[in-house]
Amino acid sequence: MIHIENIQKVYRARGRTVTALDDVSLHVAPGEVYGVIGRSGAGKSTLLRSVTMLERPDRGRVVVDGADLSALSERELRAARQRIGMIHQHFGLLSSRDVAGNVAFPLEVTGAPRKERRRRVAELLDLVGLDGLGRAYPAQLSGGQKQRVGIARALAGSPSVLLSDEATSALDPETTGSILALLRRLNRELGLTVLLITHEMDVVKNICDSAAVMHAGRITESGSVRELLTRS
Ligand code: ADP
Ligand code: ADP
Prior knowledge:
Bound molecules: adenosine-5'-diphosphate
Structural class: alpha/beta
Number of strands: 10
Helix content: 25-40%
Order of helices and strands: EEEHEEHEHHHEHEHEEH
């Protein structure tokens, strides 16, 4: 479902060069929950941003759901990104819009008619357990509820792939558990493929089928979580 092949990314800033991604390859099968774990600075967010070409790798290829994103123009990419959902550590909600307005946002961008938007928003809020909260504003919500809004919005375009950028890092352990359980349910019920980055082994143990360990821009180990846990 996601094929990352030999991608390289070097940052040059103030005479210094940092190899954020050094010949990274990984393959996420359809319906899999795949985790990339590593310390701060390992290259995880650069990797995740490369999947949607928000960051263009210097070389290598990224194929998502059969489309070679590395070969697309910016214009084609905007369409391809609609098939990829993304959630963030700090949720990324619009504070001036209510919950329904946040979830509807991607549907407005693609020009879905108002009736269709309303139907879809209600369905998404139900799916993530936020029934009845459409008129609440982000500031009125708990962290866990905000992330549920983030997840609903990410799913608005019915993506086949969900990317998670430290989605539970700002949450307490109990809330983390409930968000991971939601992601697992969406994975099972919708067949959603999930690629997540995290610095927490517990997250990998809790929901990932497979994982890769990143260190200094390279993948040092990868395999099924069961395999990785018995190896270390
Ligand atoms: P992680 O997500 O694992 O913390 P990052 O992908 O954010 O790691 O960063 C990997 C390396 O690339 C770090 O050394 C970081 O300082 C560097 N880096 C990330 N983004 C930039 C950028 N825009 N400009 C320069 N260096 C960057
Ligand atoms: P509108 O008057 O079109 O509802 P809002 O700013 O209140 O405008 O809503 C923003 C977006 O959220 C719109 O795309 C709208 O279709 C959607 N929306 C608003 N309320 C609901 C709701 N209760 N259920 C589903 N979708 C809603």
